[in-house]
Design goal:
The protein is of the alpha+beta class. The protein folds into 4 domains: about 180 residues, no CATH class; about 130 residues, Ribosomal Protein S5, domain 2 (2-Layer Sandwich), CATH 3.30.230; about 170 residues, no CATH class; about 130 residues, no CATH class. The protein contains 20 helices and 16 strands. A 5-stranded mixed sheet has the order 5-4-3-8-9. Strands 10-11-14-12-13 form a 5-stranded mixed sheet, covered by helices on one side.
């Protein structure tokens, strides 16, 4: 028993609830969100929560009521309990309710709302401003609760969720499962990750996690000034509209772009309004800035490709959400609607769905994409920039190439898409193989092939490879030169084989390093045992030596060639080919993705039809069983009806006999009364056997008189 003071036992509390009850909030909506979380908890399972403003004894109060499971008496005493009649007097003395009747009237408000269980909380003594007004504004909007300070400081760049409880509640949960009613009007909850325009899914795999984290990017369809990263933790909003570094720069990159991410691997602060400032959190924010800037560049690049003459920024264009989702007011499940729908009724139910597959509250929601199947959106701008950089690195000046030739066996690895997937140490550190620039070597071989092809087919010097007049054409193509050409052709054929072999070996080496359990030592031992390392080394040396030999042989004929013009022409031609190839690859990828999506839709539709068929077969079987039961019941009812008819017939016959008997008794009575006037039969029941005895006795008496 706790110590007593003035006859009242002091309140007791379980240590389990010390953490929750000691939470301090510096922002009013933070405290309200904590109360909403209590109703949203799985052990409470409230479907609705009502938040309202009321006045008790002239004081402004906030009331919270839900229809969840509530607290049992045992749990209530464990959380916070007081004991007998002294405590009740203290409550009535120091609370807003001065009588037991007023106190229980508030408790009965739960059942008055049509619920059998629930919780009701009333908060008074609200904080006031310097002029004596409460911190909340209940007058500006009769269907909302606003914060006065934030209203006065608001601007077009201030998100509405910072001063409007209705707006804050609409994005409080990543996927809402409970209706919030503020001052009698339901909050229109939204799936923030699906209510954006130009939605794109990106993935990020932190070094401290074994799985990818999905990031959703899109444009705000309401206001371009409200942008940033919206961060959730286990479905609960922690930080809304956080501007990352690229959005804070002078160029204002990422204006209007919203990113949505659920960081369940971070630790929120005590009041769930921020995250602990750890190294993980800082890395996440840094990479979110990079991902958001990539999305910003890709959208602008795509828009420029689609409409090169457009001068209006995409953030200034009127936008609508890519998808339309609505929550059923009965089952609280989310349904996707056709994109053409713009207006919805105040109350919407699954039976109103356009899609027959989801026209019942018993049907589960549309399945979300599995994390393994979520792929990042295509990034043609990033790929083009990377390829352009690689091309510029390959086409460095000839003097620089000459100086760097002795070290060609250790230059950068080829710019292959598979190489970007390698994480951890660089390929040069992990691979025991010599790394060569296969792209540069292939380009050199291709140019040499073009030279020989032009000589053999046209029998004249091309403009790309002018020959000095010191060497006559007839001497150049004399019989003595053909063996040399044939030898060069053989050399090129051998070099092609070596390039292919080296490329295959390089790709095998890259793929071997992509495995998560393969180490550099294992790779070295495996390659050493198979002898591939020596093959790669000799192939690389021969490939590197061939262009040098070819260039020495042709140096006499290239003295008058303008290298700069050739490089510029080759660069422009390569750039054009690259653009065409990239565009073709992009179109092919889009067609492939479209076919995959269509195939997935057809599979889902087929699965849904199969499920519907199974359900119909099950219903048909159930209907057959029910028909058999009804048939048996009908036979039973027919037999009972026949019996009732027989009983009714017998009853009618008996009724006719009794009627005739009563008439006979009545006639006999009248006859006897005419002979015996002193016989009074007015109150006799002619339906009973008593009248028979009277008539018999009266008839005997009459015969006696006649005798």
């Amino acid at each position: 028993m706790a110590a007593r003071k003035s006859g009242i036992p002091l309140s007791t509390i379980s240590p389990k609830f010390l953490h929750a009850n000691s939470t301090s909030h510096t922002w009013p909506f933070s405290a309200i969100a904590e109360l909403i979380d209590n109703s949203y908890d799985p052990d409470v399972r409230a479907r609705q929560i009502w938040i309202d403003w009321t006045r008790v004894r002239g004081l402004d109060c906030l009331s919270f009521m839900d229809n969840g499971e509530g607290l049992t008496r045992a749990r209530l005493h464990k959380m916070l309990s007081v004991e007998d009649g002294g405590s009740l007097r203290a409550i009535l003395t120091h609370s807003l309710f001065n009588s037991e009747k007023e106190l229980f009237t508030e408790l009965r408000a739960i059942s008055a709302a049509g619920t059998t269980t629930g919780t009701r909380i009333i908060i008074w003594n609200l904080r006031t401003t310097a002029n004596g007004e409460t911190e909340f504004d209940f007058d500006t909007d009769k269907y909302d609760i606003l914060i006065r300070v934030n209203i006065s400081d608001k601007s077009n760049m201030t998100p509405e969720s910072e001063y409007s409880l209705r707006a804050y509640s609409s994005i409080l949960y990543l996927k809402p499962r409970m209706q919030i009613i503020i001052r009698g009007q339901r909050v229109k909850s939204q799936l923030i990750s699906k209510s954006l325009a130009h939605i794109a899914q990106d993935n990020y795999r932190p070094s401290f996690l074994n799985k990818r984290v999905c990031i959703t990017f899109g444009y705000n369809t309401k206001s371009k000034e409200h942008y940033g990263i919206i961060i959730y933790h286990k479905n609960r909003l922690i930080k809304p509209y956080v501007k990352v570094s690229c959005q804070c720069k002078a160029e204002r990159k990422g204006v209007g772009v919203i990113g949505v991410i659920e960081c369940n691997f971070l630790q929120p602060t005590h009041n769930k309004q921020d995250f602990d400032d750890t190294d993980k959190y800082r890395k996440i924010m840094h990479n979110l800035s990079i991902k958001l800037e990539e999305y910003w560049n890709e959208i602008r690049y795509k828009r420029k490709k689609e409409d090169p003459k457009c001068t209006v920024a995409i953030e200034d264009v009127l936008k609508v959400p890519d998808q339309v989702w609505v929550q059923c007011d009965s089952c609280l499940k989310w349904r996707r609607l056709p994109d053409a729908i713009t207006e919805l009724p105040d109350k919407w139910f699954c039976s109103m769905n356009y899609d027959p597959q989801f026209r019942s509250c018993l049907v589960e929601e549309e399945l979300e994409d599995e994390e393994e199947d979520q792929k990042s959106y295509p990034k043609p701008f990033k790929l083009q920039r990377r390829n352009t950089k690689s091309l510029l690195e390959e086409n460095i000046p000839e003097s620089t190439q000459t100086q760097d030739r002795p070290a060609l066996t250790t230059i950068q690895a080829p710019r292959h898409p598979a190489a970007s997937a390698i994480s951890g140490p660089s390929l040069a550190e992990r691979s025991p193989l010599p790394l060569i620039n296969l792209t540069a070597v292939s380009n050199s071989l291709r140019r040499a092939k073009q030279k020989f092809s032009a000589i053999e087919t046209q029998m004249e010097v091309t403009s790309a490879f002018p020959v000095l007049s010191l060497t006559p054409p007839q001497e150049l193509f004399s019989q003595t030169h053909w063996p040399a050409l044939n030898e060069e052709r053989k050399t090129l054929t051998q070099s092609d084989t070596l390039v292919s072999k080296a490329a295959c070996g390089m790709m095998e080496g890259i793929e071997s390093h992509q495995g998560p359990t393969t180490t550099a030592e294992e790779t070295c031992e495996r390659d050493a045992s198979s002898g591939t390392e020596r093959e790669y080394s000799s192939a690389a040396e021969q490939i590197i030596e061939l262009p040098l030999k070819n260039e020495k042989k042709w140096v006499v004929h290239h003295e008058g060639h303008d290298d700069d013009e050739e490089e510029e022409c080759n660069l422009a031609e390569a750039q054009q080919w690259q653009d065409e190839l990239m565009e073709l690859m992009h179109k092919t990828a889009e067609e492939r993705d479209a076919c995959r999506q269509e195939l997935e839709v057809l599979r889902e539709h087929s699965a849904a039809l199969e499920d519907e068929r199974n359900r119909l077969i099950s219903r048909l079987e159930s209907a057959g069983e029910e028909k058999s039961k009804l048939s048996a019941l009908c036979d039973q009812l027919r037999s009972q009806l026949a019996e009732l008819r027989e009983q009714s017939q017998r009853g009618m016959e008996e009724k006719d006999d009794s009627s005739k008997l009563r008439t006979l008794r009545l006639n006999l009575s009248r006859l006897l009364v005419s002979f015996i006037p002193s016989l009074h039969l007015e109150h006799v029941d002619y339906n009973s056997d008593v009248i028979d005895t009277i008539l018999i006795q009266s008839g005997t008496y009459k015969l006696y008189l006649h005798a």
